[in-house]
Amino acid sequence: MVKIADIPVGDFPLLLAPMEDVSDPPFRKLCKTHGADVMYTEFISSSGLIRDAAKSVAKLDIFEYERPIGIQIFGNDLEEMQEAAAICEKAGPDIIDINFGCPVKKVAGKGSGAGILKDIPKMVRLTEAIVKAVDLPVTVKTRLGWDANTKYIVDVAERLQDVGIQALSIHGRTRAQMYKGEADWGLIGEVKNNPHMHIPIFGNGDVNSPEKVVAMKNRYGVDGIMIGRAAIGYPWIFNEIKHFMATGEYLAPPSLQARVDAARQHLTMSIAWKGDDLGRIEMRRHYGNYFRNFPHFKPFRMALVTSNDSQEVFDTLDAIVTDYAAIFEAEKAKALMP
What we know:
The protein has about 350 residues and is an alpha/beta fold. The chain is built from 15 helices and 11 strands. The protein has helices spanning about 25-35, 45-50, 55-60, 80-90, 105-110, 120-135, 155-160, 185-190, 210-220, 235-245, 255-275, 275-280, 285-290, 300-305, 310-335; strands at about 1-5, 5-10, 15, 40, 45, 70-75, 95-100, 140-145, 165-170, 200-205, 225. Strands 3, 4, 5, 6, 7, 8, 9, 10 and 11 form a 9-stranded parallel β-sheet that branches. Strand 1 and strand 2 (about 5-10) form a beta hairpin. Helix 4 packs parallel to helix 6, helix 13 (about 285-290) packs antiparallel against helix 14 and helix 14 (about 300-305) packs antiparallel against helix 15 (about 310-335).
C-alpha cells in the first residue's frame, strides 16, 4: 500500500493532475466516479489567494467524496506562499501540493511554477518554509529541469525530500519543451531507483493508455501514475487502466450514450457550481474531447460550443443520442454498400 505520509492512496494509485481551468469540482467528480485515487485542485495563485481574489478563493472548494485531495498552490515569494499554504490548510484538504512545474509564460516567466527551476536553492528554501508552515503533508509536482542542460531532477528530488516533502510527482519534460516531444521517463526512473529516496515517486507525461501505464510501472518502478490531458473528456481512463492491470484485458470503450450522459452530468454540475453563463461557457472546452474522433460530428459540436442558452445545449446532447446515432448508422451502411 502506497502512502503519502500516513494517508493510504492504493497499491498503485492513479492521480488526477492539477490542470488550470479543467480540474474543477465537476470534472473531479467524474474522475473520482471513474476510478481516480488522488485528486488535486486547479493550481491557485498564492498572491491571488492572499488578496482574496474571487477566482482563487473559489478553487478552495473541496468535497468529502473527493478525498484524499490536495490543494495546489504556486508563487515565488516565500512569505506569500507560507500564508497561502496556511489559508489552504484551513479549507480542510488532505495534502498541500506545490506547483513547480507549470510551464506557461504568465506563470514561469515570473519565477513561479517551472520558472523556479532556474533557482534550485530558492526552490528548496520555499519548500522547506511551506513544510514548516502547515501540519498537513506537503507534496511537490515539478519537471526534469528548466532546459536540456539543467536536468537536475535526481539531486533536486533528494533535496526536496530532505526538507520534508512526502511525495513527488515528476513530469518527464523540461520547461523548455512545454508539452512537445516525448516525455523522458528514464530520469523519472532514476529518481525512483535512487537508494536515497524513500518517498513515493509518481510519474507523469504521455500516459494515455492502459498498456503505457503497465510499461512505465514495470520498467521504471514508479509508485503510481499522474494523469492529466488524457483524462480530459475521458474520465473512464482511470477504471480502464485498473481493469487492464488486474486482468490484462481491455474494458469496452464508453458508448455514445455513456459519453452523452457524462457530458450532461458535467454540464449540470458546472452550472450548479459556477452559475448558468460561466458554467455553460467553461464546458465548451470539454465537448471536443467527449466526442473525439466521431465522424460527421461537426454540426453537433458547433451547436454545443456556440449556444448561449443552457437548455439548447441540453437539447443538443439529447439530439446526439437520436439524430447523430441515425446519421452515423446511415454512413456505416453506405460504406458497406457494394
